[in-house]
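2024-03-11 09:14:02 DEBUG pipeline.ingest accepted 1 chain
2024-03-11 09:14:02 DEBUG pipeline.ingest length=265
2024-03-11 09:14:03 DEBUG pipeline.predict start
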Amino acid sequence: MQATIAAFDRVNLVGLGERHWSLEDSQFRLKLIRNPEFPQKVDDIVIEFGNPRYQGVLDRFVDGDDVPYAEVSKVWLDTTQLRAWRSPVYEEFISAVRSVNASLPPGRRLRVVAGDYPIDSTPIPPINTGRQVPVINRDEAAAAVIRREVLDKNRKALVIFGAGHLYRNDSRRLVYLVNQDPRAKWFVVIPISAAAYPNAIARHAASSAKPVLLMATETVGNLDAADIGYAEKSNTTTVRQIADACLYFGSVSPLLLVGPSVPPR
């Protein structure tokens, strides 16, 4: 955890990949933002599980305002990914940021930035009305948000997206797109956990409660990326080409919390 926070001393963007609905990933990022050093180094948290149309609502909520549940829940429920964020881990994270901010002075509070495509989910009129359905590129939309809300304002951000969006070598994905701006300096972390890993990974005593951050240097960095679940066996793409570090949770599969958020309060 400390190594992840320390990365902000040399970069302005830390990409923390997630396995959607994973309890282990959720627990790690909750511990991360609750670390007293985190808000001293970080300004924003850019999330995949939020619709920018409700950014104002989100700002008010994490800043401590009394926002009705029916209003704030639209942030993670009314998105391009229909029902994808109904897992309680996403609501819990946003509420946790609100709790952290409650102990911080106004000028040092964390801002949560919604990074999904700003979809309007209101019914689309028949095609003969002339209204066009937008072509959605979620990674390009998120890249624009990061440039506008983080880079243009000279801020630092933790970026929480599905791990596949953060692969450095994929020209269609978020990190690559943001890197077209020379101001962007990334440290990319992807989560891994499985029984069959090369010894360079498996020899580490990691667990769900105590994951180990493995830097993508030397032996780990030289592994075929397919050995950590990236695409197919390639013999050409290495771990260091897709990420700067792996967050290893041990030899167990992630526990997925799939289901509705808690009932409205």
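2024-03-11 09:14:41 DEBUG pipeline.report Strands lie at 13-18, 44-47, 111-114, 157-162, 186-192, 212-215, 245-248.
2024-03-11 09:14:41 DEBUG pipeline.predict end
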